[in-house]
Design brief:
Blueprint: H1 8-45, H2 50-57, H3 64-71, H4 80-87, H5 90-102, H6 104-114, H7 118-129, E1 138-139, H8 140-149, H9 154-169, E2 179-180, H10 193-199, H11 215-228, E3 238-242, H12 249-255, E4 257-259, H13 260-265, E5 269-270, E6 282-286, E7 295-298, H14 300-306, H15 312-325, H16 344-356, H17 370-382, H18 393-399
Antiparallel strand pairs: 1-2, 3-5, 3-7, 4-6, 6-7
Length: about 400
C-alpha cells in the first residue's frame, strides 16, 4: 500500500524541522561529550581519579535552569532596609536562639578552637541556608559543568569544577550527595569548592570534611574561615549610633576610618547610651539610608564578614541577626518611609538632573563616586536638607519635581 500526503510542502517543512531538531540534539550531545573529554586532562593533573571523574559525570547533561538563573540576576534592587527586613525576622532570631541551645556544646568547642563567637557563626548559617533548611537542590558538579560548558565566567567556574572533582576524589562526599546552589555554593554554610579546600575542617574527627551532613564540620569550617581572614576575638562587628543635631557630614566623609574617640569628638554616641568598650578601635561611619535612618560605626570584624559575601547589606544582616540571637532587639532608629533603591539608569538620571541644575557630576554614567556625592551634598545644603550625600529614590523624586 502506498502512503500519500495531501500537503507535500507542509510535509517537507515538517520533515526538515524534525531533521533539524535531531541534528541539534545530536550536536549538543557531541558538544557535551567533547567538553567532558576535554576536561579530563586538567582534572587528572589536579589529582582527580578516573573513577571519581566518571562517577561525577554519569548522566550529565547541561542544566537549562542554571543558565536561566544567570540571566535573572537583577541589578541590586533592594534598599538595605528591604534586604534586612526580608531576612532578619523575629522568627529567624527565635530559630537562631533554639539552634544556639541545641548546638551549645559544639559551638563552645568551636569558639575555644577558633576564637569566633557562636552567634556570628550561627548568623551566617541562618543567612546562608536558614540553619540547614535549604542548602540548594543542584548537583554541584553538574551545575558547575553547565556554567563552564556554556562559557559563563569560564576561568572561575572551570577552576571550581576541577576543585569539586578533587573533593569527591578525596572521599569527603559522593558526587550525587554534593548538592548546593546553581552557582556551586555547597552545604550548610555555602562554601564554594575552593573555599572548602582552603578552610573546611573535619571538626568531628571522622576523617571527612562533611559540610553537607555534619553540622559540627560546617560550623567549625565557618569559624575557621572567619579566623583565617583576621577575625578579632571578643570584639563585635559594630555599633548602632546616634548622630548629634547639626552633624557635620562633610567632616565625617573626610575621616573615612578613625578611632572611636575621634567619632565621639564629633558628637556620635551609642544608641544604648553605654560607652564604647575600647575608644581606640578604628571604625567607619555607615548610614545605609542617609541621615534619616539608622547609623552605624563599623569595626574591623564587619569587613571580615564581608569576606564571606562582599556586601555591606549582607554583613549588616549577619551582624544584626547575631545580636538578635543573643537577645538584642530591632534597630533603635526607624528606617525612613517611602525610599526605594535605584537602578543604574536611575542613578544616571540623578546625575543628569544634578547637571542640569548646575552641579558638576561629570558624564552621567550611573556610578556614584566622590564627584556625584559632592554635588548631592551641595544640592542638599542649598535645599536646606541634611547634607549627607546619600543617593536614593527620595532624592530622585525631589530632583524630578
Amino acid at each position: 500500500m502506498s502512503l500519500s500526503f495531501p500537503f507535500p510542502f507542509a510535509f517537507r517543512q515538517w520533515a526538515m524541522a524534525i531533521a533539524l531538531s535531531v541534528s541539534v540534539i545530536g550536536a549538543a550531545q557531541a558538544s557535551t561529550a567533547d567538553f567532558v573529554r576535554g576536561l579530563w586532562p586538567e582534572a587528572e593533573r589536579a589529582g582527580v581519579s578516573r573513577q571519581a571523574f566518571e562517577a561525577a559525570f554519569a548522566g550529565y547533561n547541561p542544566i537549562p535552569q542554571v543558565m536561566e538563573l544567570t540571566k535573572k540576576q537583577p541589578e541590586f534592587s533592594q534598599t538595605v532596609q528591604q534586604y534586612i527586613d526580608k531576612r532578619i525576622t523575629a522568627a529567624q532570631a527565635s530559630k537562631g536562639k533554639a539552634m544556639r541551645g541545641e548546638w551549645a556544646q559544639t559551638l563552645a568547642g568551636v569558639q575555644q578552637r577558633y576564637a569566633v563567637q557562636p552567634e556570628i557563626v550561627l548568623a551566617i548559617w541562618g543567612m546562608e541556608t536558614n540553619f540547614g533548611g535549604y542548602m540548594g537542590g543542584n548537583n554541584t558538579i553538574h551545575a558547575l559543568a553547565t556554567l563552564t560548558q556554556n562559557g559563563y565566567r569560564t576561568d572561575f567556574f572551570r577552576s571550581e569544577l576541577v576543585t569539586a572533582l578533587r573533593i569527591v576524589t578525596d572521599g569527603h562526599i559522593s558526587p550525587n550527595a554534593m548538592v548546593g546552589s546553581w552557582a556551586g555554593a555547597m552545604g550548610h554554610t555555602q562554601f564554594m569548592p575552593s573555599s572548602f579546600m582552603r578552610y573546611a575542617v573535619d571538626y568531628n574527627g571522622d576523617g571527612r570534611k562533611d559540610i553537607w551532613n555534619s553540622v559540627p564540620d560546617a560550623l567549625g569550617s565557618t569559624a575557621n574561615y572567619l579566623k583565617s581572614f583576621g577575625w578579632r576575638p571578643g570584639e563585635t562587628w559594630g555599633y548602632e549610633v546616634k548622630l548629634p543635631s547639626g552633624f557635620d557630614f562633610a567632616a565625617a566623609r573626610s575621616l573615612e576610618k578613625a578611632p572611636l574617640s575621634q567619632w565621639q569628638r564629633l558628637g556620635i554616641t551609642r544608641v544604648s547610651g553605654r560607652d564604647f568598650p575600647r575608644a581606640s578601635d578604628v571604625a567607619r561611619l555607615y548610614m545605609p539610608a542617609g541621615a534619616n535612618g539608622p547609623a552605624f560605626l563599623l569595626l574591623p570584624n564587619f569587613d571580615v564578614i564581608k569576606r564571606y559575601n562582599n556586601s555591606d547589606s549582607y554583613a549588616l544582616a549577619v551582624g544584626h541577626l547575631a545580636d538578635r540571637i543573643i537577645g538584642g532587639g530591632a534597630f533603635a532608629t526607624p528606617w525612613p518611609a517611602g525610599d526605594y533603591a535605584l537602578s543604574k539608569a536611575q542613578r544616571a538620571e540623578v546625575q543628569t538632573l544634578l547637571g542640569r541644575a548646575g552641579y558638576d557630576v561629570g558624564t552621567p554614567d550611573g556610578v556614584i563616586g566622590p564627584k556625584t556625592r559632592a554635588a548631592v551634598m551641595a544640592y542638599q545644603q542649598r535645599m536646606g536638607l541634611p547634607a549627607d550625600g546619600h543617593v536614593s529614590g527620595t532624592l530622585l523624586d525631589r530632583l524630578k519635581r
